[in-house]
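User: Growth factor receptor-bound protein 10, Synaphobranchus kaupii:
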Amino acid sequence: MAVAGCPDYFLHHPNYQQDNADRASNHRPADLIGPSFQQSSNRNSPNHQEDDVDLEALVNDMNSSFESLYSACSVQSETAPLLQNGQVQRPGPPCSGPAPLPPASPRQKVRRSQPMHILAVRRLQEEQQQLRTSSLPAIPNPFPELCSPASSPVLSPGSLPQCQPSDKHIVKVFSEDGTRKVVEIPADMTARDLCQLLVYKSHCLNDNSWALVEHHPVLGLERCLEDHEMVAHVQAAMMSESRFLFRKNYAKYEFFTNPLNFFPEQMIAWCQETSSTILPSQLLQNFLNSSSCPEIQGFLYVKEMGRKSWKKLYVFLRRSGLYYSTKGTSKEPRHLQLLSDLEDSNVFTVITGKKLHSAPTDYEFCIKPNKVRNEGKELRMLCAEDEQSRTCWMTAFRLFKYGILLYQNYKIPQQRKALLSHFSTPVRSVSENSLVAMDFSGRIGRVIANPVEAQSAAMEEGHAWRKRSQRMNILGSPSPLHPSSLSTVIHRTQLWFHGRITREESHRMVMQQGQVDGLFLLRDSQSNPKAFVLTLCHHQKIKHFQILPCEEDGQIFFSLDDGSTKFTDLIQLVEFYQLNRGVLPCRLKHPCTIVAL
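Assistant: Predicted structure for Growth factor receptor-bound protein 10:
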């Protein structure tokens, strides 16, 4: 059928091109063409007498007629929503109007859909995921009584427990020589547990004297963590430059053993009020009892906030906080001003006091609030007259803050030691029980029946190898007297010997590890290359004793008392003074050691 005056876009329209013979048979030409078009065509017939034709009106009539036809044919496809993957919803019963068109080819078929919201699409995806999950085979439940609901015989895939992410933290711990170890710890690991883990990994002797130290190099502060503190919580409040150190601290609970050495009577207020002497047990009970009100008092140098100047004040330390008196040594409430609170603060030792803060003495300590990280404006810098008073202030701060927790931390290793005491004796095998002590000093060997004689013979045999000179090509020998003697180099394998360190370095090591009675180390002498020096701590004072070599009958001995007591090597010397005080102020108890992680 040729249509005169039809526009070009209408001739190329897809719905117009898909008309075939079947469609033409179902629709009459009179139905397709409107009355206006019929009238115009009649006017164009040869019988019509008027030759003028209104072409614009003719085209408009054609457009309106065919647009109405197109809308009627596509009303069904417009109302069908398009689902996922282009699947069209199947139509229902045919609506009134023109008959439905037969399906066209995939290339010619035009699909139209209504827009859908993104949330609806996501809801469809979730429903499909649930359908896939429910289609999985059921897993037999071996413990139905442990599941919810209790009567469920199988475990559905949706009821399986989800894997929760493990709450782990990475901690870097450094030793005194700069080596470090990276460990992964849970969030609830305490400082005691981490120390025991490091002792196990480093193959150290677990004598319950290891400590984890919080070190701030920028501020020049450090403190030992309490055994019950969470390492992850402390690390979260530390600066990026701060670190943890692993070292010995013999003075952590030493005040429970010797409280009078830590708390002088002139610094305790209620000791001055009573005329009778205070027993050590009663002294500790007053500190640990929360209902009692002990008080530490004395003069301290206090640095003014935001200034470099220091002021000497009379200070009181109570359970409620640290106060100073504005009028001499008065204790009246109107004359007391709060310096720092104990609840949200920690006490630190200042290791660079004179350089950073121009402290009047070397015995400086600091009270640092927990919320302060890298600003030194809120730090309370304090300075004591001597080491004993500084130790008293810092120990009392810990007791007032933690109280009975410190005593529980102190008793835990003692209880473990008591439980393991029954298994401390080594179990001998059958072959060892069949051995007997023999004496081969005479012409004929004999069995030593006396147990005391057998023990002395074993000790003599154990020390006899030290008296024999041997070639030490591997270890070397710094002694010019006997270059090949074993006794001159064997001490270098011991943990208490630190080689060529200075006097100041030995002081720093002893101070860091506790300053308790009997803490010692040995080092090379700087003034005499043939001699050695014993560094010993007594009453919180560090003393040095020179060990001189002496030669007798071609053999070298070492002595502390100008030859009165001589030893073949330094190991024998240390073992002797660990049992006997001799010329020393106290026995050697705690070796100052450094362990590489």
